[in-house]
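Bug #77: duplicate submission created two jobs. Keeping one. Sequence:
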Amino acid sequence: MKEEKFASLEELYKRLKPALSTKMREMHREKMISVTERDIWQYLCSHLWRGKHTLTLGEMVNDILNTDSFTIYRGIRED
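Kept job's structure:
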């Protein structure tokens, strides 16, 4: 499988936006309505993906969709 390269973090963010949007809607249904896609992105970048350099796009989507919403919410509130 071909490894995907991204010119910038913003390009990667745009590519992951559908998964981030899905997670945000899930969190809104769970009454965490102040959470944005950018909040989720920043939390994952600074907590879950920090120091990792070999993540695939699929692994990142999996992390977005499967990281516990309350863990993300607590992490955002603490930052």
